[in-house]
Write a structure and sequence with these properties.
With 166 residues, the chain is of the alpha+beta class. 40% of the residues lie in helices and 23% in strands. The chain has a 6-stranded antiparallel β-sheet with strand order 1-2-6-3-4-5. A hairpin with a 5-residue loop joins strand 3 and strand 4. It is elongated. 17% of the residues are buried.
C-alpha cells in the first residue's frame, strides 16, 4: 500500500508540473503576462540540430542583435521565423541577414530591426509535441481524465486510511 501511495504521489506531482508548464505557456502565448518574454513552437527543421522541430523557444526583445544571435522575426507574409543572424550590414539602416543552421543558403531578404520579435534565450526540448497533443480531442481527454483519476484514487486511499486509523 505504501508503494501505491508513493507512486500516486509521484504521479500527482509530475502531472502538476506538466500542467503548470502547459498553463504558463498557453497563458503567456495569449496574454504575454511574463513581460518581455514570448514563446513560440518550432514547426520546421531549419535550425536543426541547435533547435529541433517540436521544441519551444523562449525569446526576449533586445536593444541590439549581434552576429550568431538566434532571433525570431516576422518574415514574408507575416510568417514567424527563427533563424541565426549571419551578417549585419551597417550602412544606413541596419540590415540583418539570417540563415537557418540546416539550410544551405541564407534567407533571400534582409530583415530590419523592427521585424525582430526577440532573441532566443531558452529552448525547451520537445514541449511542442505535448502542446500539439493537448490541442487534440484525445490529448484533452488524457490530460484531464488521467489527472482526475490519479487525484481521486489518492483521495480515496487517504479516506480509507483515515477510517482505518480512527
Amino acid at each position: 500500500m505504501k508503494i501505491v501511495r508513493f507512486v500516486l504521489s509521484l504521479l500527482k506531482w509530475l502531472i502538476l508540473v506538466v500542467l503548470t508548464l502547459l498553463a504558463i505557456y498557453v497563458i503567456n502565448s495569449n496574454f504575454n503576462i511574463v513581460k518581455g518574454y514570448k514563446t513560440f513552437l518550432v514547426q520546421s527543421g531549419s535550425m536543426e540540430p541547435a533547435i529541433m522541430t517540436g521544441d519551444v523557444v523562449v525569446i526576449k526583445n533586445q536593444t541590439d542583435y549581434l552576429i550568431n544571435d538566434v532571433v525570431t522575426f516576422t518574415g514574408k507574409s507575416n510568417r514567424v521565423v527563427t533563424h541565426r543572424i549571419n551578417e549585419i550590414e551597417k550602412s544606413g539602416e541596419k540590415k540583418y541577414f539570417t540563415k537557418g543552421d540546416a539550410n544551405k543558403t541564407g534567407d533571400e531578404d534582409y530583415i530590419a530591426k523592427e521585424q525582430i520579435i526577440g532573441k532566443v534565450v531558452l529552448v525547451i526540448p520537445r514541449l511542442g509535441y505535448l502542446l500539439s497533443f493537448a490541442k487534440t480531442f484525445n490529448g484533452l481527454i488524457i490530460l484531464l481524465i488521467i489527472p482526475a483519476i490519479v487525484y481521486i484514487l489518492d483521495e480515496l486511499i487517504k479516506i480509507k486510511n483515515a477510517k482505518k486509523n480512527s
